[in-house]
Amino acid sequence: MEFVVLPDHPAADEVSARIPEEYRKKVLRHHSGRPWLVGNWPANAAVCVGAGPSKIALFGAARTTERELLVQLGKVRTLRDLDGIAERTAGSFHLVASINGLVRAQGGLSGARGIFSTSFAGITVAANRISVLGELRRLTVAEDQLALRLLAFTPPWPLSERSVWREVDSLPFAHYLSVRPDGTAEQIRWWDPPAPERPAGLAAPELREALVAAVAARTGAQPAVGADLSGGMDSTSLCFLAAEQGGGLVTIRRRLMDPTNCDDPVADRAAADLPGAEHIVLDKDTASPYYESPDRDDLAMDEPPPFIAMASHMEDVARIMASHGVTRHLQGHGSDELAATGTTYVNAMAQRSLLGSLGMIRAMRARRRWSLATTLRVVRAFPPYAEWLQRSADELLRPPDVESEVGWEPTPRLPPWASGEAAALVRDAMNRTAGTDPQPMSSIPTQHEILRCIRVNGWIVRFANTLGERFGVSFEAPFLDDRVVETALSVRMADRYVAGRHKPVLAAALRGTVPDYVLDRTTKSHFTVDVYNGRKRNLAKMREMCEESRLADLGLIGRDGFRRALSSAMPDPMHMGPLEKTIACEAWLRSLPARTGPQAP
User: Fold this and answer.
1) Cα-only R_g, the chain
2) CATH of the structural domain 200-289+298-338+464-525, one choice from 3.40.50.10580, 3.30.1460.10, 3.40.50.720, 3.40.50.620
3) Domain extents for the chain?
4) The pLDDT of residue 73
5) Is the pLDDT of residue 597 over 50?
6) What is the per-residue pLDDT across 34-59, written as a single tens digit (0 to 9) for each?
7) Residue 401's pLDDT band (boundaries 50, 70, 90)?
8) Ordered DSSP codes for 241-294
9) Average pLDDT over every residue of 590-600
């Protein structure tokens, strides 16, 4: 699905005519008659209504009808009045409106549905895909932003919000794009995180209601919906919520190679408790290995992807779901992050009551083997965000250690194969940004960290959908929906942690629908064996990528250091994540030639 948003400006006709035919299957118009929305979208993926000079379109999974949306639109007089529609409508969608010639365009809080803009023919042009904008003007890669994508974890806020293309602006977290009839635009903040003051007893029913509505937004009139059934609390809970909605359910899971994994027995039991569903199980003989085709050059992605190891598996899931008539597939992304009780949570509790949080601090220290010095760093007040960012810029090349867990975000680290030029670019970008005194997404570090992780998961879903759309399948993450995120953030800090319990608020919210043996789990399996096996199987391809490295040609990594990391018989576990980031950037760079567009007039 692609669409372009145009202002109510005379140049809109010219821009519309320049858009290739494949992206111009449908056209919606402003009240003036000028083109407003130009694109190609399935009929069941959009709800569009209009009343006089006011028009609105929701693209994606929105729990509303044309009739309901028209009633709400009738109450809208200004762009800010659209806040209510964005807040009350369950699901994940783009909201685009034309109100008396003014345009508003936005995605959700997670960024799973992004909005990007550029200047063309003297006006601001927005779209849900950068590739469409690349058809209008030639885009060039910003090398400092590409270098930032080599960091372990993700670029720090707000650098994580910036486009890797010089000519493109990404709509940042909690903002909408306002485009005036003269073609100029402004990014306007429309949402702020709630205060964490709701007792769990009140928040849990609200969280349940939000999750039920989020799943219902995906099921709706669908004849069948797909879902992961890993055995973990997150995806398994979504399966039971989807089954409660009625309709067909097709689940899929991948058996782990680790013989000690504890997910499969739970998944087997859950499948037996979902007798009306069809269950598909992939094993080592039927599942694509991790890192299958790492040297691919067909990533239709607007930016370097967040992962490459599971790309072939995600395509397998989409292909299988499509063969079963499924167009929407549920995944559990975001649940872990919404219930996070890591270092920033311990810090928040210590700031409220050091004495009252001593038990939690002792337990965390024992589990993570912190030194006394590290423990003191965790519990004392963090520095202002800009100061933390500036300090982090000086530590880019330090080896990762337990100290890097402490702060507003995981401390940014470049891998040892990054070049001095890459380090200089990243350091300069971070220092320049720190100099603007950026404010965190929330003044409470743990809330900021949760939102950062929600944005990372949104990025993952966005990439998954570029893979799934080739098969007509949309990957959906109900835990990332605005209402679910807001409700989870509103929970009182002290109620988020219960010793010996896992995600206590979510468990309370879903008790009675999801079996206790799922909600009461305190263990979780991992994919380490699968990852190492896939790496070994595809290592030759990765080495070829190293020798032909475009990142090395750009001077951002050292080919020798990259080669050494790939050649290790047993690579350092701390390097596995950065290795995947580097390989993902390489694969993305290989995909660029087909994405270049004509020079702008």
Assistant:
1) 24
2) 3.40.50.620
3) 2-189, 200-289+298-338+464-525, 353-446, 538-595
4) 95
5) no
6) 999 999 998 889 999 999 899 999 99
7) low
8) HHHHH-SEEEEEEE--S-TT-SHHHHHHHHHHT-TTSEEEEE-TTTSPPTTSST
9) 57
